Amino acid sequence: MDSEQLFTTKAELPETSSTAVVTMDPESSAPATKASQTRARMTSRTLTSQKTAPTRTAHSQNRPKKKGLSKTWKPYLEQFTLFPKLPIEIRQATWRFTLQPRAVEIAYTYNHGYYSHVGIPVALRVNRDSRNVVSLLYPLCFGSILHQPRIVFNFSMDTLCFDEMIWTELPKFLVSLGDVELKQIQSIAVDRFIDEARK
């Protein structure tokens, strides 16, 4: 190497992001090697490209692929056959959640006494299990001396309504109520007062 001049050539690899630096003998077109005693040496280095893609770690490679969401829409269940197998506390709480406040309008006839056209709660008509739970909350009320009580009424949820047809019978109705019923009534509505307020 004392009298020979060495020069360096760069060969860029188009398909990779690295550059190889090779030392060549100026009198030969082939790369110098130790076997040919050309005292040439070859060095290579890898240059990191600025556009190198991020390396996937072992954690990301082992990460399970997310499956696409199913496009098939499944409707809600129309039947739940496991309800009888639930604990009795859950079944009783479920039946109580079905109860809704009602406006119970009462009417009167001489032959039948006090009655109402408002339907009874659904839970009283489903099965024995539901009736046993809610029947205590809906006792038969508003009887008279001549007639047995026929109206199911929830004193804590329902509103007792009087129309104009029963207005003349209202004093008799109040007299016919027992002390227990009078103390438990919480909501009363009278259509006559409502109609006058609208005018």
UniProtKB/TrEMBL annotation:
Comp. bias intervals (Polar residues): 30-61
- Which Pfam families does this chain map to? 2EXR
InterPro entries in the record: 2EXR
Q: Where is the 2EXR domain?
A: 80-160
Give positions of region: Disordered: 1-69
Q: What is this protein called?
A: 2EXR domain-containing protein
